């Protein structure tokens, strides 16, 4: 169904609330659909914390899309523990210390960044907002940091790279090695800075909300399964208009097989054939001579194995609680991974960041920097570029304030002496 047909049907039918929608508007030199959903009636600058941006995203998105972003696997035990783990780390401030300026800069995988975070890869970002991955990359650039693009993305990697010179690419072996080789050649030609190889997706986790809400139907090509879920879609006319004017469900332009780009509906089946094993790192080295990080480390043994394979960084991550449910929050694993690898490679952290204080706690436990996912994606889903900017402004201000209250004038100076741990953190 085209946007033109939709507007015609709305004008003559019961969905009159969207009839005022015009065609695409020019904003900042790009086309975007006018969005009149509740989340857009207040500027993203009114958000005080990431939870406010989450509420704004929930107001704008249909339940099927919001729960895809917000939800986790099975009972969501790991999703909750990713958050709870931060409450089990308590600060130990040093007071009566002058900190007129705070330095947040660091260096990760060969690039200098203004604050100790990267924007992590989130698949299907374009269904959350038409600018999707491009908004995330551009927001990262404006904040002085880097962005990691997912293979499962709706915008071509070359377009995303134009938004930010400090882009990395997250590798899924979608479609097999032949398809991946062509993608890697494009990644190299476009000037990406490094690869993030995700190892925790031998199959897709069971995200029960996706099935209940109709995510498979939304991604499919047949209109009939979508009918059951039409009420929740029509309740969010601003999102729907933007989605249709952007062309509907995008294909995957960065996973191109012999018959063209893979379809979004094919991802789950392809993941089962795209599991990354340690042996694949040697193959990757034949096609990529830049830095490689392994994402999805959840124990010290795997961290040691990654170092033995010659990677430049490991990412302590449980995929935001979206894969194997019942593993501990990533923060609980971080100290053991730091101890296992020492200074042989960089240790990055992912999963559960919602505040600048969370970033500080991860740095205290030995992370060089963190990856943020939902924290920026809520802003992106609510307001595109402006929402990404606001999420990063919130986290940066939080982090500066936290360091000043700790009596520390540089993020790189944070260490274990600034925190105490409650029971439940792995030592190996």
CATH superfamily: Aldolase class I
Average residue-wise pLDDT:
88
Q: What Rg is obtained from the alpha carbons, in whole angstroms?
A: 21 Å
Overall geometry comes to: globular
How does the helix and strand content classify structurally?
Answer: alpha/beta
User: How many separate structural domains?
Assistant: 1
Summed up, the helix count is 19
Number of strands: 16
Share in helix:
40-55%
First-last Cα distance:
55 Å
Could you list the spans in which at least 5 consecutive residues all have pLDDT below 50? 1-41
- The CATH topology name reads TIM Barrel
CATH architecture: Alpha-Beta Barrel
Largest sheet: 8 strands, parallel
Structure in words:
By secondary structure, the protein is α/β, with parallel strands linked by helices. The chain has a single domain (3-421), classed as Alpha-Beta Barrel (TIM Barrel). Helices cover 42% and strands 14% of the residues. It has helices spanning 3-12, 50-60, 63-70, 77-87, 125-128, 132-143, 157-163, 177-190, 208-213, 215-219, 230-234, 237-245, 267-272, 278-287, 300-308, 330-341, 356-364, 374-383, 385-406, and strands at residues 25-27, 30-32, 89-91, 106-108, 111-113, 117-119, 147-150, 167-171, 195-198, 252-257, 260-262, 292-297, 313-316, 346-350, 369-372, 419-421. An 8-stranded parallel β-sheet has the order 6-15-14-13-12-9-8-7. It has a two-stranded antiparallel sheet with strand order 1-2. Helix 8 (177-190) links the parallel strand 8 (167-171) and strand 9 (195-198). Helix 2 (50-60) crosses helix 18, helix 6 packs parallel to helix 19 and helix 17 packs across helix 19 (385-406). The longest helix is centred in the last third of the chain and has 22 residues, at 385-406. It is globular. The protein starts with a helix and ends in a 7-residue tail after the last strand. The model is unreliable at 1-41 (pLDDT under 50).
């Amino acid at each position: 169904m085209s946007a033109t047909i939709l507007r015609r049907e709305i004008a003559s039918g019961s969905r009159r609330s969207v009839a005022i929608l015009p065609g695409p508007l020019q904003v900042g030199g790009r086309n975007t659909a006018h969005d009149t959903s509740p989340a857009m009636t207040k500027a993203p600058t009114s958000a005080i914390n990431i939870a406010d941006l989450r509420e704004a995203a929930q107001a704008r998105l249909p339940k099927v899309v919001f729960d895809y972003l917000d939800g986790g696997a099975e009972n969501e035990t790991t999703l909750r523990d990713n958050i709870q783990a931060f409450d089990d780390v308590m600060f130990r401030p040093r007071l009566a210390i002058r900190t007129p300026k705070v330095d947040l800069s660091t260096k990760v995988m060969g690039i200098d960044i203004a604050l100790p975070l990267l924007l992590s890869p989130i698949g299907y970002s374009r269904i959350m907002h038409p600018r999707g991955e491009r908004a995330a990359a551009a927001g990262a650039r404006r904040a002085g940091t880097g962005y990691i693009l997912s293979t499962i993305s709706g915008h071509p990697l070359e377009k995303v790279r134009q938004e930010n010179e400090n882009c990395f690419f997250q590798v899924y072996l979608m479609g097999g090695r032949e398809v991946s080789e062509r993608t890697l050649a494009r990644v190299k030609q476009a000037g990406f800075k490094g690869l993030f190889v995700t190892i925790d997706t031998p199959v897709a986790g069971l995200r029960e909300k996706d099935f209940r809400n109709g995510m498979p139907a939304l991604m499919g090509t047949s209109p009939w399964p979508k009918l059951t879920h039409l009420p929740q879609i029509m309740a969010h006319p601003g999102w729907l208009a933007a989605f249709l004017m952007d062309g509907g469900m995008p294909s995957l332009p960065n996973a191109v097989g012999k018959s063209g780009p893979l379809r979004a509906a094919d991802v789950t089946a392809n993941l089962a054939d795209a599991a990354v094993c340690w042996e694949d790192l040697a193959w990757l080295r034949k096609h990529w001579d830049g830095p490689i990080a392994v994402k999805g480390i959840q124990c010290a043994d795997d961290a040691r194995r990654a170092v033995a394979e010659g990677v430049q960084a490991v990412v302590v991550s449980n995929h935001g609680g979206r894969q194997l449910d019942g593993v501990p929050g990533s923060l609980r694993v971080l100290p053991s991974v730091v101890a296992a690898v020492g200074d042989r490679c960089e240790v990055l952290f992912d999963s559960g960041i919602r505040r600048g204080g969370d970033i500080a706690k991860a740095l205290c436990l030995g992370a060089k920097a963190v990856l943020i996912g939902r924290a920026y994606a809520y802003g992106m889903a609510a307001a595109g570029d402006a929402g990404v900017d606001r999420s990063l402004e919130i986290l940066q201000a939080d982090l500066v304030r936290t360091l000043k209250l700790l009596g520390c004038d540089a993020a790189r100076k944070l260490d274990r002496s600034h925190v105490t741990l409650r029971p439940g953190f792995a030592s190996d």
